[in-house]
Amino acid sequence: MVTIRDVAAEAGVSVATVSRVLNNKGYVHEDTLRKVQQAIEKLNYSPNEVARSLFKRQSKLVGLLLPDITNPFFPELARGVEDELQKQDFRLLFGNSDENPEKEQAYIETFLQNQVVGIISATQTSGMFNQEQPAVPTVFLDRTHEGRYTVYADGREGGKIAARELVRRGSRNITVLKGPGHISPVQDRFLGAVEVLAASSVDFQVIQMASLTYEEAEERAKELFRQYPATDGILASNDMTAAAVLHEALRIGKAIPEEVQIIGFDDIPMSRLLFPSLSTIKQPVYEMGKQAAQLLLKLIKKEEVAEQIIQLPVSFVERNTTRKVKADG
Amino acid sequence: MVTIRDVAAEAGVSVATVSRVLNNKGYVHEDTLRKVQQAIEKLNYSPNEVARSLFKRQSKLVGLLLPDITNPFFPELARGVEDELQKQDFRLLFGNSDENPEKEQAYIETFLQNQVVGIISATQTSGMFNQEQPAVPTVFLDRTHEGRYTVYADGREGGKIAARELVRRGSRNITVLKGPGHISPVQDRFLGAVEVLAASSVDFQVIQMASLTYEEAEERAKELFRQYPATDGILASNDMTAAAVLHEALRIGKAIPEEVQIIGFDDIPMSRLLFPSLSTIKQPVYEMGKQAAQLLLKLIKKEEVAEQIIQLPVSFVERNTTRKVKADG
DNA sequence: TTGAAAGCGTTACCAC
DNA sequence: GTGGTAACGCTTTCAA
């Protein structure tokens, strides 16, 4: 391993000088500069980040905590975060918590032990965060936490839009699939939907799910069609569950969207590839990741941040699990 | 920040002693042990990994380089890697290279600067790796590299199986969509398929794609049906392109699988949710990630490793883009 | 069984 | 403009 000492020796200067050119701060003569640069080149030197981090008590690393990268909602989030951080030469320390408090705790602890400059977390449990203010700037992503920096999409409005679209397109007996209540975005969209439905004149009922897995959604969908055969509109908690419902509906011979309309939530990549392609509420996922990273960067640099909570808009994506409607007017 | 010094002071011992209990190596009296543990508890001390890494010239970090986590093939790979490493308290430094040599170079450099103990790379370009043996144990995943530790699935055999299944199920005019030749697994499956087709009595043609994007596949699919209207069987480079072909086929009114059969490759999560659900060649993706991590762990610990290359088997997943065939016999 | 001290590779302060 | 050196928090000799 070649160190700053070797470079100094090679260039015939002190380590202090080499350090100065490395960080280009402080005076250094042009000739000296050249000598040092040549030495660096010659020895193929590259500074040891660990030593730097130790001295500065802060690394160029950011901790990213996700529930599960395998859930198709998250890869784009992660990408948004990474692309933004990468531009400023920050790197990602990455972990999946499975919403398991112990795992989460363990990851956060090692993030901190590795002296990350900041943390972005898309988890809800946040056992650690709840206890105390974390030692480094932290931004929550997709999940809201009272009094914390947060970037998320307007799930409430999304739920409303979904419900309105379903009603507007003619559903008169709607079933809402309600996801786990402790996941804030899931709860928000549910509340939004119910708010609109309650104020409308359509019949509706709610089926509670304990998870958002495809498998459970399949079960619930069976139940749904058995229990509420008159249902002609379904609001799913997310696209994955919508896919399960869609398949079950097709399996038992329902015409989609003629007999039953379905609206999902998220707009994950697969949604447009389903058949019929899935109408859904789109979250600006990449943008959310990006904005979370930007916010964190500001926090790290102690720049002024206008607001603690950034809420991004969602939008209805009309595809083929909802009926067409005449142009408004 | 509470340091080992604080703990030592609190416990009334030297830092050396605290270090000994931390790493439980060397003699330490039972009473002393207790005192130190209490001090640690009381001060809520947790050792600084950065300082450790600096001294040991080696961290508890592993670099994971992926082309793009947004490509649905990779999340499960990453998960396999992470789950395995996490058990042994290693953490992941994570980056997407987009198969861009500069990005890749930059990531690897920072991995090394952060003194990772090892690297797992699923990239093909590997500008850096090609030059010289990297400074730390490195395992290639999904992509093969001459003379390097590698974990991958048997794409060649997969290509053969796919071709055989298509022929066996009655396709007589087959189009092979060939992905970018520089990506080894993609090339392997192509070669396997062609090998079987060439030895068979069916007609076949090849369409070359410059990428594996859905968008390009859509274009090529249009071309395909225009140029080779007699095609009754399609071998796609992966499931994503298969999905595009499937949609285009449906759009122009082809009956699937009656008029045209399609087989994908990978078995990404969406494949079973397509309509008709996609027959494909399944790669044991999670397992691949896991094995790569296990291999790297062995390398790190300088344990004996039986072989440099681990090849995992693939399998045909029969779904509904291929015709049923009577039981063999 | 314990402690003093050197050293891991940097940076930043202070002299010159 | 430049260099010497303490310090970052830890581990590991080595001596006691």
Automatic annotation (TrEMBL), chains A, B:
Gene3D superfamilies: 3.40.50.2300, lambda repressor-like DNA-binding domains. Residues 2-56 form the HTH lacI-type domain. The keyword Repressor applies. CDD domains: HTH_LacI (cd01392), PBP1_Qymf-like (cd06291). InterPro entries: Cro/C1-type_HTH, HTH_LacI, LacI/GalR-like_sensor, Lambda_DNA-bd_dom_sf, Peripla_BP_I. Keywords: DNA-binding, Repressor, Transcription, Transcription regulation. Residues 3-50 form the HTH cro/C1-type domain. The keyword Calcium does not apply. PROSITE patterns: HTH_CROC1 (PS50943), HTH_LACI_1 (PS00356), HTH_LACI_2 (PS50932). It comes from the Bacteria. This is Ribose operon repressor. It comes from Bacillus badius.
